[in-house]
Structures are given as structure tokens and as C-alpha cells.
TrEMBL record:
Residues 1-18 form the signal peptide. It comes from the Bacteria. Keywords: Signal. This is Uncharacterized protein. The keyword Signal applies. It comes from Primorskyibacter sedentarius.
Amino acid sequence: MLRNLILLLCLVATQASAGAWPRQKGSGFASIATRLEFDETYTLSPSYNSIYLEYGLNGRHTLGVDAGQSSDGATRTVAFLRMPLFETKRGNPVAIELGLGKSTNRSSCGRACPGDAV
């Protein structure tokens, strides 16, 4: 059953058209993901959950957030601003992105440890 579901998902997958160009003013994009792993008893369990958001501020700037948390409590959050620079002769977009974020590692002391922020 699981094998048939995986095959079906592969057959209906479409091409992802991502690029460095900004979102149109007022438009956005959201993605939620969960990574699953088998533990030592071969039980499937979530190991990392994440959310990715983009919002078009105007015709040139896109604001975004990329955040996630692992099953042991470690977190990562990055806010970013993207701005296109130019398009190459072959049509490839080139952009600059500035991000500011924080990561914590809770696995070593059961809570956010001093000095864990990156």
C-alpha cells in the first residue's frame, strides 16, 4: 500500500519553478514540512518540522521567514529580505539576500544553553 502511494506521488509530481525574482506586491508563498525518521526501534517519528513564508513587499523586495524545530527541541529561525540584481544573458536570475536569525541547541542541557545561539 505504501509503495503504491509513493509511486502515485512520484507520477503526479510537477516541476518546481523557483527563482531569485521577488514576489509580486501583496502575493505570498507558504510551505510546511515534516521530516520523518526511523528510531532505534524502527518506529517512524517526526524529527524536524519547518515552515517557510515569503511575502512580496513591492515589485523589488520579498520578505521571508524560514523556521524549524527538531524533535529534541533545537530551533532555527531566519528572517530575510531578497532583492533581484540582474538577469544573465542565458536568463538566469541573480539576486542578493540578507538574513538575520537565531539557532538554539537544546539536546545538551534540556533547554536553551548559554552560548548556543549562532
